[in-house]
Specification:
The protein has 378 residues and is of the alpha/beta class. The protein contains 13 helices and 12 strands. Helix content is 35%, strand content 15%. The strands form 2 sheets. It has a 7-stranded mixed beta sheet, with helices on both faces. A 5-stranded mixed beta sheet has the order 8-9-12-11-10. The structure holds pyridoxal-5'-phosphate (PLP). The site of pyridoxal-5'-phosphate (PLP) has 16 residues, from helix 3 and helix 4. The site of pyridoxal-5'-phosphate has 16 residues, from helix 3 and helix 4.
């Protein structure tokens, strides 16, 4: 089946008992057993597995061309669970423009447990190769990144680390692109991680995360950790993400259509110093982006010529673009990363330009969005 069909049907079928077309929200923590050691259909306790979460997990696996999926309470819970495969002394190479919360978890929390991290420019495979050490167990990529929308060639990185002696796992945070635009497992990645809070949920009404992979042994290891640590997604939240995913392809197409028109508008503004969009001709990795992504997505970043104050002024002057953190919902959002989502990178090598403005372009009528930006920039 094609992607649009899978988005609506994968992992889901009408309830065999009563025909309910939508997956029920199974608000149960435990399950009747037919005898000691004889659970029905494998369900024993909802931290381990719940039917609503299972439907979502199976759907995610198919959308990402994986063999299994695991759903978590948040993107960070998913990320943390991946890192729990490692032990003291292990090394991770991560992109130098990863999500602020990922940087905080790696740099401020997990270092305390003896893990070591190097943040490298992953857009340049050679730079990444230099960061690898004999202890490197994971290479963690985001592409496109948040908020600079840097693009890394997933195939090139997969190819390069294949020959490294201890074969580090390639993990791709696919939150910004979604499986509709880009499927890292098809390009050689071992694991895909998501914040389902963003485009997969799509309506800014739920927080969630996911890990998807192909390798069976890796899947068993991570399912064990999911159950042992317990950062699972609840049934109601799993239902909301399942529902959101049904419209993912049409939402992503509209996000990108609107974004392209906004890019064309911003390009002409004199108070915008730099424009960043993966499918724009000025983007340094535009060729890679066009090779591995279906469209340019709904995220746009730009730098105001007059720096921080101008960025703050614009972000506080829009009326339809809501000043808020997060992204990927049907409604348009605006933020200033240096002062908001990426505050934790202040003073580090990952600090972002204070004049940077990030747009999450929604699926409203683009004429309204353009008029809003025009008055804010004025
Ligand atoms: C939001 C986000 C995360 C973290 O996910 P939460 O659901 O907020 O915990 C991780 N990676 C990226 C790229 C994100 O945008």
């Amino acid at each position: 089946m094609k992607f649009e069909t899978l988005a609506i049907h994968a992992g889901q079928e009408p309830d065999p008992n009563n025909g309910a077309v939508m997956t029920p929200v199974y608000l149960t923590s435990t399950y009747k057993q037919d005898g000691i050691g004889k659970p029905r259909q494998g369900y024993e306790y909802s931290r381990t597995l719940n039917p609503t979460r299972k439907a979502l997990q199976d759907c995610l696996a198919e959308l990402e061309s994986g063999q299994w999926g695991l759903a978590f309470a948040s993107g960070m819970a998913a990320t943390d669970t991946v890192l729990r495969m490692l032990g003291s002394g292990d090394h991770v190479v991560a992109g130098n423009d990863v999500y602020g919360g990922t940087f905080r978890l790696f740099d401020k929390v997990l270092r305390r447990f003896g893990l070591d991290f190097t943040f490298a420019d992953t857009t340049d495979p050679e730079n990444l190769a230099e960061a690898l050490t004999p202890s490197t167990k994971i290479v963690w990529l985001e592409t496109p990144t948040n908020p600079l929308l840097a693009v890394t060639d997933i195939r090139a990185v997969a190819e390069m680390i294949k020959n490294h002696p201890n074969k580090p796992l390639l993990v791709v945070d696919n939150t910004f692109a979604t499986p509709y635009l880009q499927r890292p497992l098809e390009m050689g990645a071992d694991l895909v991680v998501h914040s389902m809070t963003k485009y997969l949920g799509g309506h800014s009404d739920v927080v969630g995360g996911a890990i998807i992979g192909k390798d069976k042994e890796l899947g068993e290891k991570l399912a064990y950790l999911q159950n042992a640590i317990g950062g699972i997604q609840g049934p109601m939240d799993s239902f909301l993400v399942l529902r959101g995913i049904k419209t993912l392809p049409i939402r992503m197409d509209r996000h990108a259509q609107n974004a392209e028109k906004i890019v064309a508008f911003l390009e002409k503004q004199k108070n915008v110093k730099r424009l960043i969009y993966p499918f724009h001709e000025s983007h340094p990795q535009v060729q890679v982006a066009k090779r591995q992504m279906l469209n340019g997505g709904g995220m746009i970043s730009f730098v105001m010529k007059d720096g921080r104050d101008a960025a703050v002024k614009v972000a506080e002057s829009t009326k339809i673009f809501t000043l808020a953190e997060s992204l990927g919902g049907v409604e348009s959002l605006i933020e200033v990363p240096a002062a908001m989502t990426h505050l934790s990178t202040q003073g580090s090598k990952l600090e972002v330009d204070p004049g940077l403005v990030r747009l999450s372009v929604g699926i409203e009528n683009v004429e309204d969005l353009l008029a809003d930006l025009e008055q804010a920039l004025r």
